[in-house]
């Protein structure tokens, strides 16, 4: 899973850092640092962090991939 944060949009609300502290952290009061290649076990926390961003600065490629695959497997 690959994360991208638009740092021009990010306003430093830090909702992501509260919800997924193993992936996002605030450096100082307004500077966000993050792991762009988040581990799979952080998927649920990342989904919450992406949804909670007030300015929608976070995108996660592959966030829904395994969920779609899991539903297809369950349907069999």
From TrEMBL:
Coiled-coil ranges per UniProt: none
Keyword ATP-binding attached: no
InterPro entries: 3Fe4S_ferredoxin, Fe-S_cluster_ET
Keywords, in A-Z order: 3Fe-4S, Electron transport, Iron, Iron-sulfur, Metal-binding, Transport
Required cofactor(s): [3Fe-4S] cluster
GO MF term set: 3 iron, 4 sulfur cluster binding; electron transfer activity; iron ion binding
Domain of life: Bacteria
Task of the protein: Ferredoxins are iron-sulfur proteins that transfer electrons in a wide variety of metabolic reactions.
Name of this chain's protein: Ferredoxin
Organism: Streptomyces filipinensis
Classification of source organism: Bacteria, Bacillati, Actinomycetota, Actinomycetes, Kitasatosporales
């Amino acid at each position: 899973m690959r994360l991208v944060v638009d740092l021009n949009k990010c306003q430093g609300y830090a909702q992501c850092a509260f919800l997924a502290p193993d992936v996002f952290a605030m450096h100082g009061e307004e500077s966000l640092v993050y792991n762009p290649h988040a581990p799979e076990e952080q998927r649920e926390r990342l989904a919450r962090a992406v949804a909670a961003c007030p300015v929608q600065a976070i995108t996660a490629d592959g966030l829904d991939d395994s969920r779609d695959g899991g539903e297809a497997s369950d349907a069999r």
